[in-house]
Amino acid sequence: MELSVMFFGADDASAAGHAAKYDDIMAITRAADRLGFTAVWTPERHFQQVGQVFPNPALLSAALATATERIHVRAGSLVLPLHHPLRVAEDWAVVDNLSRGRVGVSVATGWHSKDFVLAPGAFEGRREQAFRDLGLLRRLWAGEAVEFTDGAGERVAVTSQPRPYSPALPLWTTTSGSPQTWEAAGGLRTNILGATIGQTREELAGKIERYREAYTAAPEQPGAPPRGTVTLMAHTYTGTSDEQARELAGGPLKAYLRSYVAQTAANKGADGRAAALSEAQLGTLTDFAFQRYLNWGSLIGSPETCRKNLADLADLGCDEVACFVDFGLGVDEVLAGLERLADLREGM
To answer: What pLDDT does 267 receive?
Structure first.
């Protein structure tokens, strides 16, 4: 089982808070590099309380690449319909060279309507565009000349520059839980980035099986490995005991869950049910989600509890856990939790 670190948190809205947040990200990433974690994931988020400091994973990954030695730097996720695939290839080739081949990108279709003020015409067909441009990204990374329309309206063939350090770009497809996306990722022969939260163990087992079958049946793709990697995000804090971990993580995690529901309610593409919740209903929903998540799917607890949960995820078919650490704990608690998590991994 591979263990990575993922940032995705809700942040202070002040400029001073943002500056301190970047310092924390750097400190946690350096520690994860030293402790032997596989990768660090940073997301793409826009205009929301959740994830204010993450508008561009390529930019932040470039900084992290130069501050580390071995840990992989990955986008988790990049909203591909918001970008021209040429720009994605260019930006990540820079990071690939800076890191000497340690990059990876998980492609998301996007879901929040407000994000698409950056590309309003792409919102309706975002899923189809993301999967189409994923293929273009593979071709551009391999050095193929691809035709696009220039400023004079002419079709011209261009080759992305600079050339990347790695011959192939490791790609993931991000899923919020749709079985169709799991199957589509297998058909495209990308790795897949999902989450444990919001689904049962049985539901997740079925989706992993569906992904594996589609991947095996799909034709070979340039740079794709013979077997895809299943990466699952899980809120993580390895404490000294179950009681200590839940006491420390409980308040921040509940606050994070509330902020996430509020963001969902602001999405014009949502069904409106979240927006109709009263404060009391929102509190009840948050408490229920918290208790359910503690029972299965999180890595919040003692080292022994986290060890058992990791073994269960491995049995399920998970290859890598992206440990979501910045959901409200202080940086000292996060660093101490990573030390304990690294220790238990060595004994597995």
So the answer is: 47
